[in-house]
Amino acid sequence: MSTIFQTFYVSRATAEFDRQSVQSILHASRRNNARADVTGCLLFSGRCFAQVLEGDEAVVMQLASRIAADARHVDVRFLLETRREEREYGDWSMGYLHDLNLEDDLETLLLIPSRSPVVVADVMERMRPIR
Q1: Higher pLDDT, 118 or 5
Q2: Are 128 and 92 in contact (CB under 8 A)?
Q3: Are 29 and 44 contacting, i.e. CB atoms less than 8 angstroms apart?
């Protein structure tokens, strides 16, 4: 049985994003991720992004490198890389959560790495699909 590679990152937007801008990102992500068998969830808090990506390790790592180089955000910090027996986001080529209440948590992840494990777990729990 092969395992699923999962990574989680946070970043800070370089400009303001309106609903249409985020929808454009989601449209492209969903199309490309479906082709690459990548699943996950994007969170936008108004100033910061968080994203979980999962799939084949080589594919996810290549995608993560492209995302990290994207000029629409800075301070990209990968905080988790793990392997799982099954997907957590298997029904989503790219789920989406817009939650202004998570802004402080995402800023904490960007600024205080020692708090990362607890805050990562909390943010990822909010991003998980309800089963």
Answers
A1: 5
A2: no
A3: no
Phi-psi region of 59 (alpha: psi -120 to 50; beta: other; left: phi over 0): alpha
Whole-angstrom Cα distance, residue 60 to residue 38? Answer: 7
For the segment 45-56, the average pLDDT, to the nearest whole number, is 95
Instruction: Check residue 54 and report its DSSP letter.
Output: E
Looking at the DSSP bridge assignments, the partners of residue 78 are 9
The predicted pLDDT at position 86 comes to 93
Q: In what order do the strands lie in the sheet with 39-44?
A: 73-84, 4-13, 48-55, 39-44, 95-98
> Using an 8 Å Cβ cutoff, are 94 and 30 in contact?
yes
Mean pLDDT in residue range 44-60: 95
Tracing tokens 């400009």 back to the chain, one arrives at 15
The CATH topology of domain 4-127 is: Alpha-Beta Plaits (3.30.70)
- Residue 17 near residue 73, CB atoms below 8 Å: no
